Amino acid sequence: MPVPLTAQVLSLVRDSSCIHPYDPDQDGERRLTACGTEHLGELQERYRARPFVKEEVWAGKIARARHTQPDLDEEELVDMTGLNFIQIEHALAWESKCFLREQDYRHGHAGPEDQTDAEGSA
Ligand SMILES: [Zn+2]
């Protein structure tokens, strides 16, 4: 470790892409460590510039639940994530929008496609 522990400064920033491995209370928070207050300020600034998207946090909670137990139905998802049906719906819609945007970007074509229901349900 390049920075001695005694010289470290810590801070929590809001980051919707940061999902805690097991503690839901810490979802959406990122722990920053820096060598001094000045560097910490720089790091905090970087995360302040990133938009906080609550759907991203919800999608992360769903992903974590599914990672533990792959074949959850919607009700079990509600139990495991602490989200309600509407939040889950919004999170999944947000996720597929991101996915489609990424696909468009990769294949170099934009435009709506008839794939809104492409995701098969078990
Ligand atoms: Zn530093």
Across the major sheet, the strand order is 1-2
Note the total helix count. 4
Number of strand elements = 2
Small molecules bound in the structure, each named once:
zinc ion
Question: Helices, strands, pairings?
Answer:
Blueprint (H helix, E strand, L loop, with lengths): L8 E6 L14 E6 L2 H13 L4 H15 L5 H8 L3 H23 L15
Antiparallel strand pairs: 1-2
Zinc ion (ZN) binds next to loops.
Report on the structure:
About 15% of the residues are buried. The N and C termini lie far apart (about 45 Å). Helix 2 packs across helix 4. The radius of gyration is 18 Å and the shape is globular. A two-stranded antiparallel ribbon has the order 1-2. It contains four helices and two strands; from the N terminus they run ββαααα. The protein has helices spanning about 35-50, 55-70, 75-80, 85-105, and strands at about 10-15, 30-35. The chain is mainly alpha-helical and about 120 residues long. Bound molecules: zinc ion (ZN). Zinc ion binds near residues 35 and 39. Zinc ion binds next to loops.
